[in-house]
Design brief:
5-stranded mixed beta sheet; two-stranded antiparallel sheet; 3 helices; 29% strand
């Protein structure tokens, strides 16, 4: 079996999300979970950028609309926060597109909308 990419870093990120879910449970808006994740990242000295902006290039131009990753942690992992009934195919497609545009290799999708935290690793 091959080694997981960014295993230690993703373990820390998922641990933060598990703590947030344990404290808050399900039912809040995404912004509440993002605020709590930011607090935990700061408390644990995990380097991150929130709402990191990425430009989208198309042929010879840069498109006027950008995308904003919920978080980029450790300068190499995109964290997308959801709070719905599950992680849908469109969330996976969106994260794959974010990885392609950002040139990063790993995305984590976390869903706070269920009784237990739901996570998905997306590798480009």
């Amino acid at each position: 079996m091959s080694e997981l990419i960014y295993k230690d870093e993703s373990y820390q990120i998922v641990g933060v999300c598990m703590e947030v879910h344990r404290q808050l449970g399900k039912g809040f808006l995404e912004i509440v979970y993002k605020d709590a994740i930011e607090y935990e990242f700061q408390k644990r000295n995990i380097p991150f950028e929130r709402e990191k902006e990425f430009l989208i290039h198309y042929k010879e131009i840069t498109l006027p609309h950008k995308f904003f990753a919920d978080f980029v942690a450790f300068d190499k992992i995109i964290l997308e926060v959801k709070c719905g009934s599950g992680i849908a195919e469109e969330h996976i497609s969106q994260t794959l597109n974010y990885l392609a545009v950002s040139k990063l290799k790993l995305g984590l999708i976390v869903n706070f909308g269920k009784e237990s935290l739901e996570t998905k690793r997306i590798v480009l």
